[in-house]
């Protein structure tokens, strides 16, 4: 039961008791109180309707903002550091002994020493300072 329905029920009870709202002080008081309750009930219903409408508008704006973010930041998701390099799960380098191209993951990269699977020679990684990324992705952009 809504507040307006409860106020209407209260108003019906007061009318059913046949309270004289013209001459009785108590009747006037009850009549004024019921009138105030009616106004409060209507105001609350209006606020609830506005809240629902605003919630729907916020949802629509959030969806629109999400679409805009996707369009604006789509390229930056692939380029986390802003340098223009592609960040894969692997670092590519070349064996200094046999020239074999090697794809190295981050765990091997952090060790600093690699054994070439082709020639079985171990060598230390020489990460140039040209890379702007802290993870040593190998890009030669050098700018953020």
Beta-strand percentage range: 5-15%
Measured as a percent range, the helix fraction is 40-55%
Q: Topology as H/E string?
A: HHEEHEE
- Write down the overall geometry: rod-shaped
Q: Based on DSSP secondary structure assignment, what is the total number of beta strands?
A: 4
How many helical elements? 3
**Global structural class:** mainly alpha
Rg result? 37 Å
Question: How is this structure best described in words?
Answer:
The chain is built from three helices and four strands, in the order H-H-E-E-H-E-E. It is mainly α. Helix 1 (3-16) packs antiparallel against helix 2 (25-78). The longest helix is centred in the middle third of the chain and has 54 residues, at 25-78. The protein is rod-shaped.
What is this structure's SSE topology?
Elements: H1 3-16, H2 25-78, E1 90-94, E2 101-105, H3 106-111, E3 113-115, E4 122-124
Helix pairs in contact: 1-2
Offer a concise description of the structure:
The protein has 144 residues and is mainly alpha-helical.
Provide key terms for this protein.
3 helices, mainly alpha, two-stranded antiparallel ribbon, 144 residues, 4 strands
């Amino acid at each position: 039961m809504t507040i307006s329905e409860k106020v209407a029920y209260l108003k019906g009870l007061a009318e059913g008791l046949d309270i004289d709202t013209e001459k009785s002080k108590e009747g006037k008081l009850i009549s004024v109180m019921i009138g105030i309750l009616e106004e409060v009930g209507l105001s609350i219903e209006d606020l609830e309707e506005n809240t629902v409408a605003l919630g729907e508008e916020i949802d629509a704006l959030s969806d629109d903002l999400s679409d805009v973010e996707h369009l604006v930041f789509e390229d930056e998701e692939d380029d986390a550091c802003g340098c223009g390099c592609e960040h894969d799960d692997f670092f590519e380098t070349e064996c200094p002994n046999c020239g074999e191209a090697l794809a190295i993951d981050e765990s091997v990269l952090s060790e600093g020493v690699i054994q070439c699977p082709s020639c079985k020679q171990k060598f230390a990684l020489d990460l140039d300072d040209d890379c702007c990324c802290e993870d040593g992705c190998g890009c030669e952009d050098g700018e953020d």
